[in-house]
Amino acid sequence: MNNQGIYIYGFVPDNCIDNVKSLLLESGIYSIEYGDISALVSDTTINKIEYLNRDELAHLLVDHQQKIEKIMNSGCSKIIPMKLGTVVSSGNDVIKIIKNGFNLLNQTFESIDGVEEIDVAVVWSNFADVIAGISEKPQIRHMKESIADKESPDPVDSINIGKMIKEKIDHKNNKVNIDIVNSLMSFCVDLKKHDTMNDEMPVNCAFLVKKENRNQFMEMIDKLDIKYSDKLNFKIVGPLPCYSFYTIESKIIKKDDIEHAKKLLDIDLLNSEYDLKKAYRIKASLTHPDKIIDSKEENADNFIEANNAYKLLLDYSSIINKSPETVLSEPLYLVKIKN
């Protein structure tokens, strides 16, 4: 029999719950409230996302995004997505997450008010033609002719040609990227560049667009489409919740790890961030690999361990400062914006 947990889709202000009550019921979603914030959740038998196979993960992603986007389009425009696959054991854990992230969530509600995400991906219509055009550049053509004249071609020459073609492709893609991004940014608040799939994709970006500028943003896309004629294909997805900018994630901090970190940095009480920094600097000065040449590798490990202990205690102290009552029982949740 599978253990049941609670899956978290995201967070909304309490005052918009009435707008989506029927949708939540249809979708098997309910809300858990703390203060003026509601977490939108459902019961699940998923334990850890790492245990899912590829098909199960793809299904979860589609379900996660479809439900968040339906809620956004049904009257809860200020929805903050939770990281895909976030499952907790109980409603008390959900409340802990809201408590520890209460200020951050309210600040984020203000940040996403009046904006939306629009994703833009651009690919070459005929990448073979792009490569062919680059290959006809005088420098590359000359290199090819020189290789052809050799009685015994050197494989290094072919590698060098390949590198040169790659540099030219990167330069061409970068030029297109700058032109498109600069043309669109005047209608946007922020930009996130995502990894491109390959050299055929010069642009893969998420734009945080002011809702009042959405039409102008789309008109600029149309102008760029005309400008690049049939050379580029534009794929637009959105408006979306602000996945790329304001997705929330929670990290569990164990008390045993806290005690180990305190011991490592020789700290009994976390009186202030200053004391923590001071303890870390002392430990770092003793374990830095450049300090002791004879045991450089061992010192490098000790230095990394001290750095990790410092980061953990910084996170722990932030929980204490935000909601000290939540540290009395495990699990402890650190809440932050996903990078």
Radius of gyration: 26 Å
Whole-number average pLDDT?
A: 85
Total count of domains: 3
The backbone outline, from C-alpha atoms, is globular
Terminal Cα span: 36 Å
The succession of helices and strands, N to C, reads EHEEHEEHHEHHHEEHEHEHHHE
| Number of DSSP helical runs | 12
Note the quaternary state here: single chain
Give the helix level as a range of percent.
40-55%
Number of strands: 11
Strand content: 15-25%
The helix-and-strand class reads alpha+beta
The stretches of 5 or more residues where confidence is low (pLDDT under 50) are none
Strands, helices and their partners?
Layout: E1 5-13, H1 21-27, E2 30-34, E3 37-44, H2 54-73, E4 80-81, E5 87-88, H3 91-100, H4 102-112, E6 115-124, H5 127-135, H6 138-149, H7 155-184, E7 188-193, E8 203-210, H8 214-227, E9 232-240, H9 243-246, E10 248-253, H10 255-265, H11 273-287, H12 296-322, E11 332-337
Antiparallel strand pairs: 1-3, 1-4, 1-5, 2-3, 6-8, 6-9, 7-8, 10-11
Helix pairs in contact: 6-7, 10-12, 11-12
Question: What report would you give on this structure?
Answer:
- The mean pLDDT is 85.
- The protein has 3 domains: 5-113; 117-245; 250-337, Helix Hairpins, CATH 1.10.287.
- It has helices spanning 21-27, 54-73, 91-100, 102-112, 127-135, 138-149, 155-184, 214-227, 243-246, 255-265, 273-287, 296-322, and strands at residues 5-13, 30-34, 37-44, 80-81, 87-88, 115-124, 188-193, 203-210, 232-240, 248-253, 332-337.
- It is α+β, with helices and mostly antiparallel strands and 339 residues long.
- The two termini are 36 Å apart.
